[in-house]
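#struct-help
A.M.: can someone run this one for me? Single chain, 83 residues.
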Amino acid sequence: MPKHTSLEQIEQYIIDVTISLRHKHNLRQSDLGKIINTSPSFIGNVENYNNPAKYNLKHINALAEYFNLAPKYFMPEKPLSAK
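D.P.: on it. Structure tokens below:
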């Protein structure tokens, strides 16, 4: 899977976990937008590997609540190397 060129590995990891959850639960970008109280275009920007948009902690918390997961689910178990 191609990676955002302007994002840190940790940011890309969170995006990839969220994309995987979205697909697993058959959700559209618009569904995710409602969950985190943002526009579907924002989700599209986050999922576009050429766009620097990313989720923030408020988004991660809302996603964790919706999917009944701990916020740490969206984070790797160990630190990732910087770019």
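A.M.: thanks! The two ends are 16 Å apart (CA to CA).
D.P.: also worth noting: Residues 56 and 70 are 15 Å apart (CA to CA).
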